[in-house]
What we know:
7 helices, mainly alpha
Amino acid sequence: xxxxxxxxxxxxxxxxxxxxxxxxxxxxxxxxxxxxxxxxxxxxxxxxxxxxxxxxxxxxxxxxxxxxxxxxxxxxxxxxxxxxxxxxxxxxxxxxxxxxxxxxxxxxxxxxxxxxxxxxxxxxxxxxxxxxxxxxxxxxxxxxxxxxxxxxxxxxxxx
Length: 159
């Protein structure tokens, strides 16, 4: 079975990944002061770290997208304006983030929060990563929907 170039370019997964990378990379750079140990790191080290974190964010977005697709039995839930799909997407992204943050700041010892990072009580998760997975996926889905529908006003207004 041959892969159609036009079909591949119109897959929701490609656009989920592209917009996840663009949005999360900027966020990762902006939240760096909230993590300890990066004050003395050279610019290249910060960029490398943010790129790695962003690639992780892209994977989380894809897993969350596929989870939502399974839940609503459609890969076009973002285009259809399916609220259940959006809630599963947001919920799965948040769940993965909270678990990974707990592991990364705990047993894996990948990073630690600076004193400036507000931390959620009970969970111990930083407010910046939690906010990231509330705000950015909403913007991401808006961009994906707009891109795949071609900005057609009537389709954007009537999901």
